[in-house]
Automatic annotation (TrEMBL), chains A, B:
Pfam families (alphabetical): Voltage_CLC (PF00654)
Domain of life: Eukaryota
Name recorded for this polypeptide: Chloride channel protein 2
Matches recorded under Gene3D superfamilies: CBS-domain (3.10.580.10), Clc chloride channel (1.10.3080.10)
Record flagged with keyword Transmembrane helix: yes
Length: 891, 891
């Protein structure tokens, strides 16, 4: 009962590793044979004409359905079976699955946290134990993380290279409907969990949020696969996608114990259109997961009850003064620039590493060297006895965050108070510098370190490091404010001092929001700190940071998507007003490769040679151009290959020999025989063509090479074989994705056998036979055809097209007009149009926002339009597209 | 440049008032004439054949575009114009619009709050001033609200009946793509604002949340309309829909000063699929609005700084014990049942009022009597000196809520403490009863009062009353717990007492979540109380409440949608596993009314008589059944009417007379002339049919009635006119939605004039002429055709169909197979299939969840299937659909 909704496959190769993905089309596609369909349809129509009111097909459907249910019900008849069914029905419930997922993820998260804490503890212990010798101390400080990072890089390299990095970009792509290979397997799960634990245990500025989204998704996929023993519902693809969306929420939720923020963050970073019916799933699973995650801490007596992870204790009665809002807004805007800079820096580092061929080649050979070198560099700089003392180097990420959210004003700590906090605040209150210097050095150093560290090939996220940097920046602003206004700004009766901790919270939310282009980091900080009293400053800062960052750079995840060359559709940004005025007809490709229903095999061959499209349009005829459906390139190749198959040639040979022999006996019956054969299977020879004299059946071709490709090059059968194999390697039929290479080999072998057995024609004869065959009309029975590809009209706006493409996860859509095919739009054209290389008006569509630039462009538009109009009257042969492109290049 | 995306129109009449809405199809539709199109297409193909590589159409497109831009650019040439353009570009920015919207809504919200507070103050003042005489007190207590409610009902009745009720159901429908008439006009805005102020000022248990969503949407629509003077972007429908979504968030956000909760709540209650790109819009506008709303309170010195509306002061260090969680879960489950009961009660009251014909007729005549009676009843019961003393009757909703969230434990107030709180807690601590009795009476009485009060025809919501009841229930449970465990549950060193106020918060979130089927009420309470420390109890309770309520009843808004018979698509609920197995072919209508491109006018007439469908499929021919597009019923009617138009008849008459006269002179040229005329306009006579002798041109029909309908009954021209007018009244062409009746009259008059002028044929002759005309092939030029209606395949699952319908806001979709039309699915079939009247397997698809019931059904399914199979072999003529329906009725 597979409706075969997975589709074409492409191989997009990034430089570091080759990604293979298959495009899954959400939109209706099924794989009924055309031949079967035609027969059914004919039968149906006949019945309908006989009976008048068309209840016959319904009856037929019903009986089919009943047969189907009987088939499934037959084995389970007894009482025990009924119990089993009850159990299966229960297991099939969404909530059972979600509880299981939440439970598993909470345990994973807790266990990992425990392991990471142990690793960090060990490092501290080593560092503390060796305090007699600075050199030993330094070696312990540097070597321990280097070993861990190298191990992490090694294990991911060996087990599953897909486990590298954050995982959110991949999940975004997967939820868009693209199937990334090996991304949701058990091996990747193991590699990611262990790799992440080691990477975070090293104390490097890396995060666990992104990887947790990936881990939760893998967990959901594995759970779904293992539960599919119980019921068919787990095999449903649509359901699995919905569960993956919930899993993303669980990932964030159990990482931060932030269920609401988790759901919202996962929606923002992974979806373009979000189904509200998935909403409760996310909340349910994330809440359960966060609950278990926090309950575990209570059970092992770590904490007395469930509270926030980074609990703050700001005063509730007067959280902030209205006159502090400009400072919060400043934090937002500065964090917006900072976030954009971080994304830019991160991308530049990746690109720099790739561009340096010599370094790159060396590093590619010794894959573990780059992570080790980076680790040595970063740990050396943070060595607490060295430079580290000016940047609170000895603190772990968690300790840093707890201190940054601290309720006290560091710059105003009295010597009397100091001894109380000496132990923990020592790191910031270095005797050789002051709080401000430490904070500035911390921010600057951690900024580039985090950008660098997130590029090393281990499982790691960037959210947490960015969050810490943001908090430090906020604290810096807060401390400055506290010095500036020692008694608070408010000049009424009461004195409310400024809370630098609150500034740190605002900064953390703003910078992480700017880097990820999300607003929900605001909710995450509320849940992390357990206080929502600063909601307005946080929201204002986050929104401003987003506005600035979105107008300058893509989000970190989109940046990684582009770096990894994953298939994507850019978002319509803050200001996308032009998109309403660009129409599909301005961006569509008019020269669509098509196959017509009445075409000859030669046309198939020509189309396969002339285009590289993975999907071809099927039209009624070249004159009417009425779109009937679409057919995959592989299917066309297979049709051609089947028709020119050596076995068929052999059969034709035998058939002709027999026909020759029988010819004298019953010459008059030949035409009847032919009529039957054309209605039969596709392997039956359609010998109604020219009648040629029979060749001696014993003649052998000298030697057939075993390699199909070489055979294709040497003799005439290659035309068919080549197209067959090309199709096989470039795009698999949807059913056989796993063991693709094996299958191709198998085919090759069987062909060789056939060749050995019966090929008794000379190459010239084969060529002649094939030329004959190519003149026959195509028999489309046996081909899988998508009977309702997505259609748009010419005047659909770019905005609407983007909506439909992202809603339905389309890869391409045909542009039709009254059933006639007039063009085609694929992701590529859409991407180009959105990213600004071409538009209808000859004006470059700008990257999101930059509204100041836009106003000047729209003012200049008029002139260029007038100019172009004049110019265009001279050069009527230029296409609008090309003209636009030239225009875009010139400006 | 209107792409004409608004479409068919239907008139769904609820009992209380007639709703007229137009279906807006999001999916591609444009209104190019078929004739123009065919000509263009032919020209294009010819050019393409001449030039080989098809760059001609592109050139044509470009020149079109350039003409278009010149047209727009022509008037603005100078420098001042450039400045104007810059200004317009700025005004066209999303953020300008959102800030304006947020500002206006904050001011509206604040002003309304002020007015409501004044009204309530006035009532208190009156009540307090008259405390010497109980009768006068009672009269003041009752009459004042009654006058206000009557005024509110009156103003809405007179100005805009659309302002009645919550507005969220209507907004949900509008955001689905249905255009409800008069719902977003200035009149409705005024009626809603004043009506709501009066209704809430009366002190009745009504809420302002739902109406605020509606008010914000109207505000956005009006703002958009008034800003459309500045730039064309405001005329874009897709953008306006996005802005409406943001407006809903603003509505909730500025009502509760809860930006995050507002965004989430508005997403949950209005959307099925949510575009993440709208997310920042909602956040931006809601945050700004909430900010201004709260800043206003600071500026007028009401408050010292911005804090939460209902600030709580629960302890942060130990918010709750793990062992209290069962109590929170109990609140959740109980609130789930309570929420379902509330929705049920509300619906029953509405239905009861409608069913009582005698009461109903009386009330319909005196529309203001029902609100007045309800108000008198409710205020009498809450009279503080009477029954009201047992239910805290003298408190306003806001005071009640503040007290319910109070930090102290009421049941443990010592006599010594009491005097401090005597003033405010007096209401609950009645000397004649105790806290528990008061709470129980409060909950029970307010429950039915709120359900009743929300049915009266004034602008009102149910969120706030439900929220208060939930808080009271939570407080009741909390107080009970406090009595049960006087020293807290925790038996470690510290004593942490139970906080009944926290239970109240949990209860409020749970009950309002259950009634509205939302999870985001959790976020709203965090923002309202300014504390997030109880996140886990709140989330657990809300999720459990949702699970219970969703399995029992639709949400309040969906319930109202059904009561009002608005076009809707039910949600796929918690457990919708069956939906994956039902396919489109099981639910589609196979007998689709269609028009074929080569049909005769008689076929058009037949199809108009035989079906009531608003949209007809256009196929290539009845044999091929290839779907070319869809055509509206009105268009078909217009085609037929035009063809049989009296003026055309007259022209034919004149033409024939002339032809007759010329016949002798140039008989040989006649065939050429005919050829020309068929290519001309549709009004030109196509006289290639039978040639009849010319009638005497002076003969007059005795008397033509002026009423077109009567004329249709009496003479033969009625066939055409009737179909024309039927079409005109049942479905308007998309352009003329406003002045529809006027236009119809105009047409009628002009026809009458024509009849008077030139109809000189006898009825019999007219009939004969029309019969002739009906035999001619249809000329589709001039008809508006949707060239790409949405298509599905037979094997699309119900789940996917639901997704696509709700994603694209479809009204119907054609089921095609290789271009051939095989069926059609409309909202009706889909709704039926989802709501459980028919499925593929003969098992009723259950209403969402009720998982315990389902397991028994699936166990019984096998038996019934076997039975049905046997039974079905006997009764082969029964359709599966009917069989299922019978099955459903029997079980």
């Amino acid at each position: 009962r597979s409706t075969g909704s997975t589709g074409t496959m492409a191989s997009g190769s990034a430089e570091q590793r080759a990604l293979q993905y298959e495009q899954t089309l959400m939109y209706g596609r099924y794989t009924q044979d055309l031949g079967t369909f035609a027969k059914d349809e004919a039968a149906r129509l006949r019945l309908q004409q006989e009976q008048g009111d068309g209840d016959a097909p319904r009856r037929r459907r019903l009986s089919e359905l009943l047969e189907h249910s009987q088939e499934r019900c037959a084995p389970c008849c007894g009482r025990s079976k009924r119990c089993q069914r009850f159990f299966i029905a229960k297991v099939g419930e969404d909530w059972v699955f979600l509880i299981l997922l939440g439970l598993v993820m909470a345990l994973v998260s807790w266990a990992m946290d425990f392991a990471i804490a142990s690793c960090l503890q060990a490092q501290k212990w080593m560092y503390g134990g060796l305090d007699t010798n600075v050199v030993l101390q330094y070696l312990a400080w540097v070597i321990y993380p280097t070993v861990l990072i190298t191990f992490s890089a090694g294990i991911t390299q060996i087990l599953a290279p897909q486990a590298v990095g954050s995982g959110i970009p991949e999940m975004k792509t997967i939820l868009r409907g693209v199937v990334l290979k090996e991304y949701l397997t058990f091996k990747t799960f193991v590699a990611k969990v262990f790799g992440l634990t080691c990477a975070l245990g090293s104390g490097m500025p890396l995060g666990k949020e992104g990887p947790f989204v990936h881990i939760a998704s893998m967990c959901a996929a594995l759970l779904s696969r293992s539960l599919s023993f119980f019921g068919g519902i787990y095999e449903n693809e649509a359901r699995n996608t919905e569960m993956l969306a919930a899993a993303c929420a669980v990932g964030v939720g159990c990482c931060f114990a932030a269920p609401i923020g988790g759901v919202l963050f996962s929606i923002e970073v992974t979806s373009t259109f979000f189904a509200v019916r998935n909403y409760w799933r996310g909340f349910f699973a994330a809440t359960f997961s966060a609950f278990i995650f926090r309950v575990l801490a209570v059970w092992i007596k770590d904490e007395e009850t469930i509270t926030a992870l980074f609990k703050t204790r700001f005063r509730l009665d007067f959280p902030f003064d209205l006159q502090e809002l400009p400072a919060f807004a400043f934090i937002g805007i500065a964090c917006g620039f900072g976030g954009a800079l971080f994304v830019y820096l991160n991308r530049k580092i990746v690109k720099f590493m790739r561009r340096q061929k010599t370094i790159n080649n060396f590093l590619m050979k010794k894959r573990l060297l780059f992570p080790a070198l980076v680790t040595v560099l970063i740990t050396s700089l943070t060595f607490p006895a060295g430079l580290g003392q000016f940047m609170a180097g000895q603190l772990t990420q968690k300790e840093t965050l707890v201190l940054l959210f601290d309720n006290r004003t560091w710059s105003k700590l009295e010597p009397g108070d100091e001894f109380e906090y000496m132990g923990i605040l020592e790191a910031w209150h270095n005797p050789r510098s002051n709080v401000f210097v430490t904070l500035v050095v911390f921010i600057l150093m951690k900024f580039w370190m985090s950008a660098l560290a997130t590029t090393i090939p281990v499982p790691c996220g960037a959210f947490m490091p960015v969050f810490v940097i943001g908090a430090a920046f906020g604290r810096l602003v807060g401390e400055t404010m506290a010095v500036w206004f020692p008694d608070g700004i408010h000049n009424d009766s009461n004195t409310y001092r400024i809370l630098p901790g609150a500034y740190a919270v605002v900064g953390a939310a703003a910078l992480s929001g700017a880097v990820t282009h999300t607003v929900s980091t605001a909710v995450i900080v509320f849940e992390l700190t357990g206080q929502i009293s600063h909601i307005l400053p946080v929201m204002i800062a986050v929104i401003l940071a987003n506005a600035v960052a979105q107008s300058l750079q893509p989000s970190l995840y989109d940046s990684i998507i582009r770096i990894k060359k994953l298939p994507y559709l850019p978002e319509l940004g803050w200001g996308h007003n032009e998109k309403y005025n660009v129409l599909v007809e301005d961006i569509m490709v008019r020269d669509v490769p098509y196959v017509s229903l009445n075409c000859k095999y030669r046309a198939l061959k020509r189309i396969l040679q002339s285009t590289k499209m993975k999907t071809l349009a099927l039209v009624e005829s070249a004159e009417s151009m009425i779109l009937l459906g679409s057919i995959e390139r592989a299917q066309v190749g297979a049709l051609l290959g089947q028709h020119l198959h050596p076995q068929r040639r052999l059969q034709a040979l035998q058939h002709k020999a027999q026909a020759m022999a029988d010819d004298e006996r019953r010459f008059s019956e030949a035409s009847v025989c032919i009529q039957v054969s054309t209605e039969g299977s596709s392997f039956a020879p359609a010998s109604s063509g020219s009648r040629k004299p029979l060749k001696p059946a014993l003649k052998r071709v000298p030697s057939i090479p075993t390699d199909g490709h070489q055979a294709g090059a040497s003799d005439g059968s290659g035309i068919a074989l080549k197209s067959l194999f090309c199709a096989n390697t470039s795009a698999e039929p949807p059913e056989a994705q796993g063991p693709a290479p094996r299958k191709a080999k198998h085919v090759r072998i069987s062909i060789t056998e056939d060749l050995d057995l019966g090929d008794r024609m000379t190459p010239a004869e084969i060529l002649e036979w094939e030329e004959q065959q190519l003149e026959q009309p195509v028999d489309f029975s046996g081909a899988q055809i998508d009977p309702a590809p997505f259609q748009l009209v010419e005047r659909t706006s770019l905005h609407k097209t983007h909506t439909i493409f992202s809603l339905l996860g389309l890869d391409h859509a045909y542009v039709t007009s009254l059933g006639r095919l007039v063009g085609m739009v694929s992701l590529k054209e859409l991407r180009k149009a959105i990213e600004g290389s071409l538009t209808a008006k000859g004006v470059k569509v700008l990257p999101p926002l930059a509204s100041f630039r836009r106003s000047s462009t729209s003012a200049g538009e008029m002139d260029t339009t007038d100019l172009r109009q004049l110019w265009d009257r001279h050069q009527h042969h230029l296409l609008p597209r090309e003209a636009c492109l030239e225009d875009g290049d010139a400006s």
